[in-house]
């Protein structure tokens, strides 16, 4: 296996790791207001998240910026909670303003999530001569992993909202409330307190 494949697989595994499910929760919170027909918007959303965390991941991995790890571990579930609360407070799941807010959340909160990845990636890179290719491969792996999460979520939404007939607003409220509850538990579990 070459270096690119190795870091690509590590990126996929990192995002799909159930022990680090905070990233999965954030992607679900971002997607909770969408259905399968919104797939183009979702791809842009997930890519905005990848772009945001790629920037800070690169800067932190290169030691250009340094942020307290405990603060980042606190802020990550805060970003999840804010996104979930925004979904809960939206009057309609598909209004245009909500989509714009989610794009902002994806990009800006992606910056915070990227800082959370940086210690992990820095430890992996260790003695690599150049980090460009491993960083690119890792981020592409993260993007693919996020698309897997989105795909699973959209299939569940299609079955429950489209086939079984659960009300779309109820679906959004339930998903967002569960994510919010989990985010609150994560906030309380951080070392930041």
From TrEMBL:
The chain crosses the membrane at residues 20-36, 43-65, 71-89, 101-121, 144-164, 171-188. The keyword Lipid biosynthesis does not apply. InterPro entries: Put_HupE_UreJ. Keywords: Membrane, Transmembrane, Transmembrane helix. It comes from the Bacteria. The keyword Membrane applies. This is HupE / UreJ protein.
